[in-house]
Amino acid sequence: MDAKITLSFDETIISKAKRYAEKNNVSLSRLTEFLLTKVTSNNYNSFEDFPVADWVSMVSEGQAIYKTKAQKSKNLSAEFFKSKK
């Protein structure tokens, strides 16, 4: 059974992901579901353990930066709102 969620991403990433999904005849929802299934179906202890496929690099910009709980949430909030200016 499908359930709806709301996610926020950078507009550029959304555009690239939509084009990628369209080229591969899959919806953006199913693409996201596929990625989440891959992440949750294995015993990855952290983001760094997760193998990132080449196509992820094609739809992203720059080097991946992983934000973990080890960082203070106050700093993450400030960084998030700073990036939206």
Number of domains: 1
- CA-CA gap between termini: 38 Å
Strand portion = under 5%
Number of strands: 0
Helix content: 40-55%
Report the total helices: 4
Structural class given helices, strands, pairing?
Answer: mainly alpha
Based on CA inertia axes, which overall geometry fits?
A: globular
Largest sheet: none
- Given as residue ranges, the uncertain stretches (5+ residues, pLDDT < 50) are none
Radius of gyration: 15 Å
- One letter per element, helices H and strands E, the order comes to HHHH
Overall pLDDT: 77
Overall description:
The protein has 85 residues and is mostly helical. The protein has four helices and no strands. The chain has helices at 11-23, 28-40, 54-59, 73-83. It is globular. The model has no long low-confidence stretch (mean pLDDT 77).
Short description:
The chain is mainly α.
Main features:
85 residues; mainly alpha; 4 helices; globular
Secondary structure blueprint with pairings:
Blueprint: H1 11-23, H2 28-40, H3 54-59, H4 73-83
